[in-house]
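RECORD TYPE: inverse folding
INPUT: structure tokens
STRUCTURE:
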């Protein structure tokens, strides 16, 4: 008999392998029992959605869910540090330096870009070797044309010209449908024949993609006038000097980085409400001040711009308008002259710069057409100094008749009386001594005792003519006070009487003088006759006027 219970090697009926397989089966049964005990039923859809919403809200993808189970989208704020984007579109100085280096290698110098400030770095076009050089065909499906060209070339290499011709015909038909060009067959054939040549690109002007869209012309303009902080920094200036960069006219350069200063002033204006900044004020590194400008000495920038008031108004009026938008306050007493090396403007030049030349500024009623004539014939003086704007259009010859009719007889004398000594000297230098200067010289020559006795008859006759001329001019003169004018007239009469006491003096007029006098008399008579005729006509009109008739009272 066999002890089945104690025999470990008892046979396992129906299973090969004996007791080992039974043990394995027992283990598997135990594992299955444990799985059944640990079984977790699957989550419902609602549970899965709730869990997804929690995770999405934690990540900031959504803000929440409405009562109607509508998702409110969230927004993930990027933590981007502040910086001063001087050059636009996130370009930095290194990009500008690279662009200028390439520009010079392409064109040789910067003469073009300093004239044309609209230059923008072009966007590179991906070349396919087919139809890429023709801007008129950029609306074509270039990829399809390239595939057709490769297929046609393969058919020709295999000697299957019929299939190549069929493909050419179908491609021409497709191109005609795209652009409606009746001459597409000729254009396609020409480009197909030269597809290899057209695939060549001028690498000398192949701008890199990361510089595309840079407004290089505008940046150059802003660098030259001092708007951008480039020339102000030694390390940047040295790099551009190595390229032989054209900095432009030094007298137009703003020695304060204007755009950066305006950003700082605008921030100060938003925080404090004005621009009365202490000179030692610097941007704090705390809220609400911008981090990008922390430490910037905005007080010194404001002080310097105030000192450049005349310079800014002369050469950069558009920037003055920009400053006006943030209520920038100028202190004229602190303003320096346009050229710091020039002496300070005197009162006369200040008045001329502010009001213009008094020959024009003091005119009350402008004669008809005078401004148009001056503009048509001028300018009469060329200058690039904005303080001398009035010189360009000033010309005494255009207004001398106006002032003569107004009673002016000596313009230089009047200019000196108004405090324009330099203008008076210039007037006398161009037009000669004025009436009062001549009177002074003449009366000085007669002031000595016995001066007339030393004069010859011809000199006395000339003196008499001059005094008579002075007297005639002074009758309607408004250049001096009436009392002073009457005193001068009395002096003229006394000197003329003293001269005429000489019995040897021949006071008869020459034939030419008599003829001139006679012609003048005729003119006066004609004017008098005309005035009489006008008076008679007016008198006749008055007689013909009937009040009752005008009022319609007569029957």
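DESIGNED SEQUENCE:
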């Amino acid at each position: 008999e066999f002890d089945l219970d104690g025999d470990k090697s008892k046979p396992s009926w129906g299973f090969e392998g004996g007791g080992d397989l039974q043990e394995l089966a027992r283990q598997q049964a135990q594992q299955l029992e444990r799985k059944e005990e640990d079984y977790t039923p699957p989550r419902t859809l609602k549970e899965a959605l709730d869990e997804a919403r929690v995770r999405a809200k934690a990540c900031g993808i959504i803000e929440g869910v409405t009562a109607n189970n509508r998702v409110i989208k969230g927004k993930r704020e990027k933590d981007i540090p502040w910086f001063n984007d001087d050059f636009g579109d996130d370009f930095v100085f290194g990009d500008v330096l690279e662009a200028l280096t390439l520009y010079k290698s392409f064109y040789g110098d910067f003469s073009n870009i300093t004239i044309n400030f609209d230059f923008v770095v072009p966007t590179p076009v991906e070349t396919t070797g087919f139809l890429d050089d023709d801007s008129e065909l950029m609306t074509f499906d270039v990829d399809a044309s390239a595939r057709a060209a490769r297929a046609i070339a393969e058919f020709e290499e295999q000697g299957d010209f019929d299939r190549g011709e069929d493909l050419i015909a179908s491609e021409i038909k497709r191109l005609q449908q795209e652009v409606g060009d009746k001459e597409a067959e000729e254009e396609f054939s020409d480009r197909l024949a030269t597809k290899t040549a057209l695939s060549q690109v001028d690498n000398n002007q192949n701008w890199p993609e990361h510089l595309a869209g840079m407004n290089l012309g505008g940046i150059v303009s802003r660098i030259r006038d001092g708007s951008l902080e480039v020339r102000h920094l030694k390390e940047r200036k040295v790099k551009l000097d190595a390229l032989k960069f054209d900095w432009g006219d030094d007298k137009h350069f703003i020695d304060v980085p204007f755009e950066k200063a305006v950003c700082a002033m605008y921030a100060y204006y938003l925080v404090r409400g004005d621009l009365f900044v202490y000179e030692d004020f610097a941007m704090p590194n705390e809220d609400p001040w911008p981090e990008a400008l922390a430490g910037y000495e905005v007080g010194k920038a404001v002080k310097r711009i105030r000192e450049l008031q005349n310079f800014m108004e002369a050469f950069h009026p558009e920037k003055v308008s920009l400053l006006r938008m943030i209520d920038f306050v100028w202190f004229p007493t602190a303003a320096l002259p346009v050229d710091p090396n020039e002496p300070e403007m005197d009162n006369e030049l200040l008045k001329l710069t502010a009001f213009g030349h008094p020959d024009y500024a003091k005119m009350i009623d402008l004669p008809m057409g005078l401004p148009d004539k001056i503009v048509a014939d001028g300018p009469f003086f060329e200058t690039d100094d904005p303080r001398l704007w009035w010189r360009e259009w000033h010309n005494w010859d255009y207004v001398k008749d106006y002032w003569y009719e107004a009673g002016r007889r000596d313009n230089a004398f009047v200019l000196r009386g108004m405090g324009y000594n330099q203008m008076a000297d210039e007037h006398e230098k161009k037009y000669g001594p004025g009436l009062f200067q001549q009177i002074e010289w003449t009366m000085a020559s007669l002031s000595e005792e016995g001066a007339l006795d030393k004069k010859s008859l011809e000199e006395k006759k000339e003196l008499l003519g001059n005094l008579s001329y002075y007297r005639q001019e002074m009758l309607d003169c408004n250049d001096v006070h009436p009392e002073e004018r009457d005193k001068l007239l009395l002096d003229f009469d006394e000197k003329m009487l003293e001269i005429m006491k000489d019995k040897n003096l021949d006071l008869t007029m020459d034939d030419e003088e008599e003829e001139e006098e006679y012609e003048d008399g005729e003119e006066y008579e004609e004017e008098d006759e005309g005035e009489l005729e006008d008076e008679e006509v007016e008198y006749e009109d008055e007689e013909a006027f009937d009040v009752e008739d005008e009022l319609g009272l007569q029957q």
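NOTES: The longest helix spans residues 511-544.
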